[in-house]
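[Structure tokenization] protein backbone as discrete codes
[Encoding] learned vocabulary of local backbone shapes
[Protein] chain in single-letter code, fold in tokens
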Amino acid sequence: MFAGVHHIAVICSDYQVSKEFYVNKLGLSIIKEVYREERNSYKLDLALHDKYVIELFSFPNPPERPSFPEACGLRHLAFSVEDVEQTATILEDKGIMVEKIRVDSMTNKRFTFFQDPDQLPIELYEV
């Protein structure tokens, strides 16, 4: 039925700060950036390894996340990585705070979390 995940949409409170974070700190590449004047909104299509993955949106005065982290809806975004510890160190060197590395009790895989500028939880999961 499904061929795969097409993209994940993220609404940010400060477009320039989030663009800097996703592009320059996380290393996603820009596919296309559009300013939609009628909505006073930017839409930034981002790729990871040349595969379209995230739509970053800005809207004037978006509501805050209702609670953290257990709000109803999307819980977090997860990136697969070969080495969680190495990736966490790279992020920390870029000024991003990363939680302590844990081990998934069901798979015995290592994982950890960090946050985007709007406190969206992002997971690193070792594969």
Remarks:
- The chain has two domains: 1-61, 75-127.
- The chain has a mean pLDDT of 91.
- The chain has two helices and eight strands.
- Residues 27 and 48 are 8 Å apart (CA to CA).
